[in-house]
Amino acid sequence: MTAELTAAPRVVPGSRTTATVEIVIPVLNEERALLGCITTLSAYLGDDFPFPWSITIADNGSTDRTWEIATELAERNPRISARRIPVRGRGAAIKATWGSSTADIVAYMDVDLSTGLESLLPLIAPLVSGHCEITIGTRLGRGSRIRRSLKREIVSRTYNAITRHVFGLRSTDTSAGFKAARRDAVAGLLEAVEDDHWFFDTEMLMLAEHNGLRVHEVPLDWVEDVDSRVKVTQTAMGNLKGLVRVGRAIAAGRGRVDVPEIPQLRATHPDAVLAEPRAATLAKFLGFAVIGVISTVLYTLLYLPLRVPLTPAGANLVALVLVGVANTEANRRWTFNRGGGHRLGLHTRAAILFATTYLLTTLAVTGLHLIAPGSGPVVELLVLIVAYGLMTLLRFVALDRWVFARHRKESR
């Protein structure tokens, strides 16, 4: 069951501001830090924050005095509420509190206050003005000033480099515990995000960028909390698994969610089509590569026994035909995730691609015998495998951009 103390109405009397802001503090066994954090944060908000605000302490299953302190703070201040979340994990706490919020803008920050509070207003202001749907703090962007251990620095920079250069995210720092969003814009994203732990942030940003939401970054002054409970290496490995999972989901067409239209984009580019993110292309290529390795092994097992009764060109043709049909069906089902549809047209286009592959591999083996007469089956096979490998990239692009792209249109 969820226990909750509800805050008083979150509108400052007499204020001209219409945007309300709810700041979530996820906590798990933080009895030492919680009182100081909330005291400091509420004092700053009361003195220097121009928007109507509230604080929600999201207790994620604490077994120490955290919940007791949270309820005491809520009883003292009507702008503070305490809520118990029955599911462990920072992502679960944020999804539950943001999802049930009635504020215009939702935010969250870590209880250690590693981020300077002077960054809070720059985090919220672009959301109030309507210039973006999500804002994130970055420790790796221009203007950021950070102080942390060498291990965390290396792991963080490596992970974020992977998210940008491999999976195509534009955000420079996906994991900083300092983010905000327009509640109406991220409602659909929260329902689609599966992770309940540290990968929540990255998954939300991947889906946000994939669905065309605008993400704005705010440089941070950030000091590492030496008492942090985060297991950096273990968390990074879990995040890498999450990247592959979300990339495959996007590639399978499961990454689309209901998000508000962006007026500026609709007005200036009414027929705009968002490019497929690199995460989806990478996930498809990984699936294609696995099927390609299996196909190469199968081709080898077929070619060698066929080479005895047939000529090199004949053995190559039979092996390619059998492997080509199986390869196309495997890629249709698992790499490009296509169900039924007009399979005849699909396989006709695949046959044209097959003919190209056969022509090039046959030229390769014919050229071998012209250059080195008397070459045996093993040398022939090596040359064919090299030629087949060189065709892999061309085949992937052709399947993605032509064979299955046409199949997608026919299915629609």
Automatic annotation (TrEMBL):
Descriptive protein name: Glycosyl transferase
Membrane-spanning ranges: 285-304, 310-330, 351-372, 378-399
GO BP term, example: polysaccharide biosynthetic process
Any single Gene Ontology cellular-component annotation: membrane
Main location: membrane
One GO molecular-function entry: transferase activity
Annotated membrane topology: Multi-pass membrane protein
Alphabetic keyword roster: Membrane, Transferase, Transmembrane, Transmembrane helix
PANTHER family in UniProt: DOLICHYL-PHOSPHATE BETA-GLUCOSYLTRANSFERASE, GLYCOSYL TRANSFERASE
Location(s), subcellular: Membrane
Annotated organism of origin: Amycolatopsis keratiniphila
Domain GtrA/DPMS transmembrane: 288-404
InterPro entries in UniProt: Glyco_trans_2-like, GtrA_DPMS_TM, Nucleotide-diphossugar_trans
